[in-house]
Amino acid sequence: MQRPVDHPAIPARRVGVLLINLGTPDGADTKSVRRYLKEFLSDPRVVEIPQIVWQPILRGAVLTTRPKKSAHAYQQVWTDAGSPLAAITRAQAAAMKDSFGPGVMVDYAMRYGNPSIASRLQALKDAGCDRVLLAPLYPQYSAATTATANDRAFAHLATMRWQPAIRTLPPYYDDPAYIAALRTSIEAGLAALDFEPDVLIASFHGMPRRTLELGDPYHCHCQKTARLLGEAMGRPLTISFQSRFGPAKWLGPATDEVLVELAKAGTRRVAIFAPGFSADCLETLEELAIRGRESFEEAGGERFAYLPCLNDSNVGNEMLRALVARELAGWIDQG
Predict the structure, then answer these.
(1) Which residues, other chains included, contact 38 with Cβ-Cβ below 8 Å and sequence gap of 6+?
(2) Does residue 253 have a cis peptide bond before it, meaning omega lies within 30 degrees of 0?
(3) What is the helix (H) or strand (E) element at residue 132, kind and residue range?
């Protein structure tokens, strides 16, 4: 049956894949960082304090002092392509662009900052994607990461008259493909060093300890990732948690304290990596690679190495393709 002449154009049906990462300011200047931090720290999934109590603190002491300090940190890692996190996530999406045939569109978005989840989800729908896989790139599940990314997507879906069907990428903290990719990447990094580390540290992003008590599985996921990876590599790993914020008690031991304690106890050579991050960012390149080194060496350590995240490496991209392909089963013909 022929469509009426005044019928609006309907694009060909497609499947969309939206890679989602945490986010980044638009620039390394104080104004951009303040805008980013305001959005990030206003998320009730991130700061679980009643907003009536938290917002005056955020808009007062936090946003008047922290942006300048954070901007200086961003300036240490900023590149011609922008923030490392944005550049790498963009590259990951580009590497996957043609992996599933012309009927699948792959895009990326940031939970905080740009490109926003709402804008890219809408772009996929406008391009004809009536089925969309949301893929938060967090191996270990946390309400403050995976859940808030999905929340933001669902919030935009709530405004749409014609919604696409939605699937979400599960956490992959114990997936054999993820563990194997980490092992390959870390062993390659260790082989390239001109020293043998006495201790290998797996540093995960910290969370307030209260999140564990409330039922968040993040701590358990981190522990299992480290256990499986250590078993795969046949060597012990020291687990720590970084990026503490505020006065609350956080998951420990703290990475900065572990580095100092190791050096003071006589450890002279360490290598550190961040398996909870899918892409290098401020927390890895500045907090670990720069400040972590300074802390270790000032306490008496001699050799320090930061091993990069999977990023858009071949092994990292192949892992992501495998995870996404699994979740697209039934939506596309994969031969």
Answers:
(1) 58, 59, 63
(2) yes
(3) strand 129-136
Q: How much is the pLDDT for 7?
A: 62
Q: Specify the amino acid at residue 225.
A: T
Closest among 42, 45, 65, 64 to 54, alpha carbons compared: 42
* pLDDT tens figures, 99-117: 999 999 999 999 999 999 9
**What is the separation, in whole angstroms, between the first and last Cα of the chain?**
32
Give 79's DSSP letter: B
Q: In what order do the strands lie in the sheet with 238-242?
A: 238-242, 199-205, 269-273, 303-306
DSSP state of 18: E
163-172 tens-digit pLDDT:
999 999 999 9
What is the full DSSP assignment across 239-287?
EEEE---SSS-BSSSBHHHHHHHHHHTT--EEEEE-TT-SS--HIIIII
Residue showing tokens 């305001």? 38
**CA–CA distance, 26 with 24 (Å, rounded to integer):** 6
Q: Which one, of 257, 261, 228, lies nearest residue 241 by Cα?
A: 257
| Long-range contacts, stretch 124-128, CB < 8 angstroms, 24+ apart | 124/16, 124/18, 124/164, 125/16, 125/160, 125/162, 125/163, 125/164, 126/11, 127/11, 127/14, 127/16, 128/10, 128/11, 128/12, 128/13, 128/14
At residue 301, what are phi and psi to the nearest 5 degrees?
-70, 155
Structure tokens at 52: 């009536």
